[in-house]
Amino acid sequence: MSPVSWLSSHLGLPDWLLRPILAPLVYPGLLAFMPVALFIIWAERKVTARVQMRVGPLYVSRRLGGVLQLLADGVRIAFQEVIVPETAEKYSFMLAPIAAFSLVAATFTVVPGGPGVYGFDSNISLLIAYALISLSPIVTVVMGWASNNKFSQIGAGREIIVSIAGEVTLLASLLAAAMMYGSMSFNAIVEAQNDAGIPGIVANPVAALLFFIAVLLITDRVPFDLVLGEQEIVQGPYTEYTGILFALTMALDYAKLYVLMLMFTNVFLGGWMPFNTPLIGSLCVFTKTLVLMLISVFLRSVYGRMRLDQVAYLFWARLLPLALAAFSLSAVMHFLYR
Amino acid sequence: MKNRLRSHVDALATAVSRLTKSPMTFFYPDYEEDKPYGYRGVILYSNEKCIGCSLCAQICPARALKMYRVPGDKRLRPGYDLGRCIFCGLCTDICPTDALELSSVHDKVFDSLESMVMDPVDWTLWSRKVRGEEMARGRKMRVWIDEDKGLRYEEVR
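Structure tokens for the assembled complex are given below, as produced in the milestone run.
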């Protein structure tokens, strides 16, 4: 008996109604996301410090290596005043971060976090997740425009160019994977990998690489963080935000990273592949996602920022032809998952 | 193409190998770098040595020193604006009675900009406080040039 059906029998609610509420709120959604964000941001700062031969955050909870630093920052930010600039468009300025974060949080309903742990299953859940993720850059552009600040507007302009380039590559790699498995449902994809015993990254490494690089671009990770571009345009579209709204904009990128890496785990790493019970399977998915996130934040200490034209060239002229190669590879590898 | 791939691998390998090395910084408030001879920190004032010649205020290039009239005193006495001081040490050189001296401290915190402007009485009291702290500071670290890391810190005994 799964935890969801146990809860539904106690609350007297039907299963299908409880799942889409629990998935975005508990696991793999926001409740699981909080410690992940806490840990990942700490790890990012600590690893970068280590590579640069520094100590990194340490003052808050010295015995734990400063892991509670972000909690302290969060408390400070939560009690900070939210300042709305006089020239800003008040309502879109205040509502845009909330809308963007809700869109990303809604994605958790379709992405499974373990065997039988999902909001709802559909034949096109891959496309639904992709559509929700790719809606949030539009809201980011609204943020940049509503702030009425030159840095925000430059950042919003960059977001347009960058997100189109990234999402085409992301969609191409996802469609290549869907073609290989012959399905667009996450559960069916993981089951196909389970039955064949081969994770997708082995069968189609090109699509996996494309997906990973596109995720780095979409979530503003370091070689492609030119939307934020701290040294050039302060904080990009998020420049004017303070207090809890700033925390939301910051959490937005990490939530996107979390949900996209969850998708990577399901599509290319076989999800809960060696295990099949809900609890251990979920832990397996969670661990794989965390390791992927650690790899992507580790890149911050290795690379510098690429220029806008270099990024556009890389994605349109180098990675898009590779996507065609991924498609042809999928057509060949399709026999594995029949 | 091959070279590009290799440079990516090199960069990643360098970062991974750096992960295993210990940091080259030290815990700043607990440990303190051993200051070299002639280090120019904040300027301290001793009231009893001062003869009120106002040479220090004349030579100060940043106009951080200014002569004040103190009640109950015939002569003018120097006051100190720490916000303006550039720690050049000219005042300590020119002082005929060594009433001004350089300390090895530079990390002092103030509540407000106004509290950084000290009249002679404030400055005397503050200097006494800093002298006492200087004696009681934490463990000193000496810096060495290291082939591996660049810098290495070692405790001075």
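The mean pLDDT of chain A is 86. Chain A is about 70% helix and 0% strand. Further analysis is deferred to the final report.
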